[in-house]
Structure formats: structure tokens, C-alpha cells
Amino acid sequence: MKKILQAEAIAPFIISVLLIHTMDVNFAWWIWILIFLLPDLSMFGYAFGNRVGAISYNVLHHQTFAAILAIFGFILQLPYVELAGLVLIGHSSLDRLMGYGLKLEAGFQFTHLGTIGHKRKLSN
């Protein structure tokens, strides 16, 4: 089931990239990389504990929030707000495709897609 949830994330990723490509906003190619990585700054919330970290991470990786932001920007003709929503959709979709899901309060490695990272063996 986890693989199916991961695989379905490819569609919103591709759609967001195509929509971004059609927008009338121009940046150097390296700026796009920085913009695409910005949502991961939300991980700094973990410096204040698992609960704050999960909340801050999930807000910037929740696809409903991202879609509302993109639609809001489109309707009000605010291209940078629309861009922010589309970037969040693309970023969170790529994360899900790689197996990183929304975080649970138990810790960063615990997600709605399961536990991420390598399983450690206990040594005697």
C-alpha cells in the first residue's frame, strides 16, 4: 500500500511543474532550485521539539493548503502566491514519491506513509 501512495504522487508533481512552466514569472534556473527547496526550512521547527516540528513541517507539506494557496493566487491574479502554492504541491509530491510523508508527533522519522530511514539492529 505504501508504494501505491508513493506512486500516485507523481501526477500532482508533473502537473505542478507544467503549470509553473506556463506561468509568466522569470527566474534564473538556480533560483528555481532554491525556491523548490524552501519548504524544507520548516524542519527547523524540530529545534523546538517534535510537536512543533511536526506542525511546522506539515503546514508547508500539506497538499490541501498548497492547493488552496495556488487557487487563491490564481483567482486574485497574484502570480507569486500562485507560484508558492504550485511549488508546495510539487515539493510535497516529490517528497511523497520518495517516501517522506506528513510527520507524526512521535518524531521526524514517523510519517503517515510509515517509518523512514534505516532500521537499526540492536547490538548486544
Automatic annotation (TrEMBL):
Top-level lineage group: Bacteria
Keyword check for Transmembrane helix: yes
TM ranges: 12-38, 65-89
Keywords in alphabetical order: Membrane, Transmembrane, Transmembrane helix
Classification via InterPro entries: DUF4260
Name the UniProt record assigns to this protein: DUF4260 domain-containing protein
